[in-house]
Design a protein that fits this description.
By secondary structure, the protein is an alpha+beta fold. Helix content is 17%, strand content 38%. The chain is built from 3 helices and 9 strands; from the N terminus they run H-H-E-E-E-E-E-E-E-E-H-E. A hairpin with a 5-residue loop joins strand 2 and strand 3. It is globular and about 40 Å long. The two termini are 19 Å apart.
């Protein structure tokens, strides 16, 4: 099973003890004017901070679709070269406040939720996004394609750095020629 479940269980237990993990890190402001229908679909993970739930995974994608209850279905998928197999986890997400603010709470296990904060977004084309979690231990760069331009990369790294993230810790995700 996707390693994320174990990590989310542990994180969830810690979050309950700390009165919740749906906040926003210091110096981070969720994007406004967010349009969920434009965000739905497949995103490629371009870079991430290392975590046990994604350790050793390449070709990582996140696919977002609507749930019957109005929430968002989240499918995270990545390939483990070590196991020569695809790992997949299904979660759910809901807006924390306004549906036009890029701040959701996501769960991959039961009632335990963590922040999913969109801190930068290509509002014109919804082609790339910079995401964080409840604190500065989490950071992802996502894009609609398996790679991004140097210009976009530089801008997203500058945004993350100015918000206090150590971008030298980013792992740049490999994507094969054929992405499933």
């Amino acid at each position: 099973m996707f390693k994320q479940l174990v990590s989310m269980i542990m994180a969830g237990m810690v979050c309950v003890g700390l009165s919740g993990c749906t906040g926003v890190p210091d110096k981070v402001v969720p994007v406004e004017g967010f349009e969920l229908p434009r965000y739905l679909g497949k995103w490629y993970e371009i870079a991430r901070f290392d975590h046990s739930f994604e350790e050793g995974l390449s070709e990582v994608t996140a696919t977002y679709s609507m749930r019957d209850d109005g929430g968002v279905k989240v499918i995270n998928r990545g390939f483990s070269v070590e196991e020569n197999a695809w790992d997949e986890a299904e979660g759910k997400a809901y807006f924390v406040e306004s549906e036009t603010t890029g701040h959701l709470k996501v769960s991959f296990f039961g009632p335990f939720y963590a922040s999913y904060v969109i801190m930068e977004l290509d509002k014109e084309g919804y082609q790339y996004a910079l995401i964080t979690g409840p604190d500065k231990d989490y950071l992802w760069i996502l894009a609609r394609t398996p790679s991004i331009s140097d210009e976009v990369r530089t801008r997203l790294l500058e945004k993350a750095t100015s918000a206090g993230y150590d971008v030298s810790k980013l792992i740049w995700v490999e994507h094969g020629e054929e992405n499933s």
